[in-house]
Amino acid sequence: MNQSHQEALLQSGINHFQAGKLRLTRVYTTLQQDLRLRGSSEAHLSLVIMREGSGHFSLQKGVVQPFQPGSLLLSSSQFPCEGEDFFPRNYLYDLQIINYPVQFLDALLALGLDCSGVNGQIYRANLNSAMLERQSEVDDACRDQSAFGQLRLEGLLLLMLWQSLNKFSKGSAIKRVARN
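RE: above sequence
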């Protein structure tokens, strides 16, 4: 099934949270139909934490990369780009997608991480225990809608970006996926 990102994100088991200027999409669902998402975006910075799931994505025509359970993906682009995601049915999807303000791309550049390719850059790493712990803390923080809970959620989402950038800048167990 081809759907827009907006339509697809309205399904049961997909929740959205705003914390300051940060957007979190929390997915915990089993798809009943294959889902193919095609879209384009302006400059962006996104972090995907996938505990469970399957599928693939493409930022370059003809170059398909798998989504892998237990992985962390950092997607960044200083320029508009197009892509496609495919998620097969009958898999449990347990993931968080965090969208950060594009001004945070400066942090990548300061660490020497490239985000200048025509189709952006994707960095991949295996999830470690610290990131799994953060993911659980984020789930807890999402349940607290008070001002203090929102502050906690925003702080945790920023910490996840900081930990990811720190990991990627040190180059341990990191694979750059897409480059143009």
